[in-house]
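Dear colleague,

Thank you for sharing your sequence with our group. We've completed the structure prediction you requested, and as agreed, I am returning the results in plain text so they can be pasted directly into your records. Please verify that the sequence below matches your submission; if there's any discrepancy, let me know and we will rerun it promptly.
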Amino acid sequence: MSTTPRLDRSLARELGPTGRAVEKHLGLRTVGDLLHHFPRRYARRGELTDIASLVVGEVATVFAEVVQASVRPMRQRRGQIVQATVTDGRRRLKLTFFTQNRGIAEHWARQLSPGTQAMFSGKVDSYRGELQLVHPEFEVLEDADESLVRAKADELIPVYPAALKLPSMKIAKAVQTIVDTLGPEDVPDPVPPQVLRDRALPSAADAMLLIHRPTDDAQWRRAQKRFRFEEALVLQTALARRRASAM
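Please find the predicted structure tokens below.
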């Protein structure tokens, strides 16, 4: 059995190919690196992204509703193009997918039927004055069980800083795989217990759960406050030690 602390273990060892992809595209090497790759923001099912805020050239994760989707053959070479339009209720965004397989193209078009809400992740581009995502990763936000849909209506979805070939949804799955097996003993806490109690801050292990799997806004804000305090405390301690060594 390995004696390497959990946070120091390599992602390649913990997550296999997924861990290697995280290291390659994000430069994160250890479990601790991944757990400290905090969400950029949180979204709710049904809460659409402001398309007007998208910046050309950035890798973005967009929550939007499908207006239309169609399949047609490519003009210059063999293959199929799926073109879809999504909206946030004010502006529209074009989506373009390419495939050699007609069946896959038709499957994508069926998934992107009008009225479907989904999460799309890709690099923002502009074509003829219109914003677009070319071949974005996407995940439909729906469930066949209506009771589950209602229960998940306010579920917070973490949106992570991503890379073109490693979208937020894949990062989220990697994080959740780690979080599912994370124990208090796996997360050493540099903040003394008395300080945590005095400031009503969660432990490091609890804060990891609250920031990666919050059930409401208050939870991730509480975790964020704790990690900011920890960062300031560690910095102050390092400066104090440096001053003491210089005396």
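Summary note from our side: DSSP finds nine helices and eight strands in the chain.

Kind regards,
the structure core
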